[in-house]
Amino acid sequence: MRVRVLIPLLVIVLYGVVPFALAGNNYVMSILVAALIIAGVALAWALLGNLGGMVSFGHAAFFGVGSYISAIVTMKLGVPVFAAMLLGGAGAAVAAVAVLPALRLSGPYFALAVLAYAHIFKILATEFTTITGGAGGILGIPTLPRVLGYDFGSKVGGYLVIVTIVLLFALVYARIRNSYYGYALRAMHDSEDATRVVGVHSTLLKALMLFLSAFMTGVVGAFNAHCINFLEPDYAFSSGWTMLPVVAAIFGGYRTLTGPLVGAVVVYTVDQLVFKSLIPSGHQIIFGVLLGVMILFAPDGLIPLLAKKLQWVRQPRGCRDPRTESVC
Q1: Model confidence pLDDT, tens digit, residues 14-29
Q2: What residues contact 219, with CB distance under 8 A and at least 6 apart?
Q3: Which domain holds residue 115?
Q4: Which terminus of the chain is more exposed, N or C, with fewer CB under 10 A?
Q5: Minimal CA–CA distance to 35: which of 17, 14, 10?
């Protein structure tokens, strides 16, 4: 019952209250759009880590590939922007085929292998100057279009596009997590050999999660390219497109659905609006400290911590066992 009430309320806030309240403040709206871009990548990263059981340090590879493909097909082939964004996601998923040999690795070995692929794609984007423009980059990337008289290239229009993308990805994530495949993937975390015995094709499921995560990241990267209208390899394949989403997902709670989304919005907006004004140079160090504190004292993340505190407050007073924190 609570979910049925919260979801319509969330939709009203995201599509009605936020655009109306912030329509005249382009700076804050730009920060919010950037936070949602990070949220989209954080959700894709969490899907691969939580369901696929694979920690990646190289999602910048998929972000950059999606950015370049969408920019190139719009500029050189005349593909409409929204269709090009989907092609960017598809291209990132195809690029993930190169990562398939790394599925035999686990833990930090897989994470470092994907990081190496990100550097390889960055080198390719730099060297193929006839297609990507090389180190000089690409200028004049088409902005988001006007549809039925509404300009999605505006700050509010861009916000509506990215919030829709993120919510659709969250819905897909939720459906997979609650499906047979989601249960099978989580069972693989405890014993991959045991799940193989009962007929679960673990390698195939992990590959599908890799492709889906790459597609999601590629679409978000494509959206970003059409927002800033410029690309160059150092920016498109920057390690920041991996590190910021990872920090956001861990801070919010990457094992939950809402954790990466809330974490990204909180981390980025607070950093830009508060910490940056206090410490203009090196303000990111504050988040390094906060992340360390969060990992030490609330390793599950912010959302599980708040849920636990809320549950504790709702318990009847005088009826708690201080040793187990359970209801008497």
Answers
A1: 888 888 888 878 888 9
A2: 40, 66, 85, 86, 88, 89, 92, 165
A3: 22-239
A4: N
A5: 14
